[in-house]
Amino acid sequence: MFQFFKRVKTVVGSELNAMLDKAEDPVKMLDQFMRDMESDIREVESAVAKQIANEKMLKRKADDAQALVEKRQGQAEKAIEAGNEDLARRALEDKKEQESQANTLNESWERAKRDADQLREKLDEMKKEYQQMQLKKDSLKARAESAKTRTKMNRTMSSIGNDDSKRGFERMEEKVMQFEAEAETSEDMSSASKSLDDEFEELGNSDVDDELAALKKKLGKE
């Protein structure tokens, strides 16, 4: 189970490029790795809880056996004081059996405690690694999204500047120039079609007035 974390670290690190080469979605893959790690952590937490419960049970039994040893010792002393040697002997015999059980239970408890401590340490390591991988996953996801955005932008920009786009733009520019030429031609034709009377009218009424005044002066009609 603990080897899984090493495998995940390898995949997220050195094998990320291979994932991309295979067209796998790194964001989805990273999310799946994190879910697998969470599942492993829950399994280890369950194992730790069971081991701690076993440790406490063995400790309680060892303490009870030791308490019975001390009780039998006290009872043997009371029996001697009361002059009942046979009762004292039976108390000491049971004390000896309880001591043996207490020693066995105590050894079992110590082993269980070492195992529980090791599992707790492993669990702490797994949680720390998970937190580190979570931070790295967030960073990798941001990088992946950024790369996707840059790729999309580059493709869009390349399509804007391709030959088809340029040719289309040039055609539209030629159209505009053609429209401008047609407009200038129509203006020239309009000017050429003006009549003689139109041109005289453009001279204005001032020349006619001067000529009229000169004619009246000549005829003495001023």
UniProtKB/TrEMBL annotation:
PANTHER family named among the record's database cross-references: MEMBRANE-ASSOCIATED PROTEIN VIPP1, CHLOROPLASTIC, PHAGE SHOCK PROTEIN A
Bias-annotated ranges (Basic and acidic residues): 73-99, 108-148
Ranges where the record places region Disordered: 73-168, 180-209
Domain of life: Bacteria
Lineage of producing organism: Bacteria, Bacillati, Bacillota, Bacilli, Bacillales
Biased composition (Acidic residues): 198-209
Protein name per UniProt: Phage shock protein A (PspA) family protein
Protein family: Belongs to the PspA/Vipp/IM30 family.
Entry-linked InterPro entries: PspA_VIPP1 (IPR007157)
Pfam short name (any one): PspA_IM30
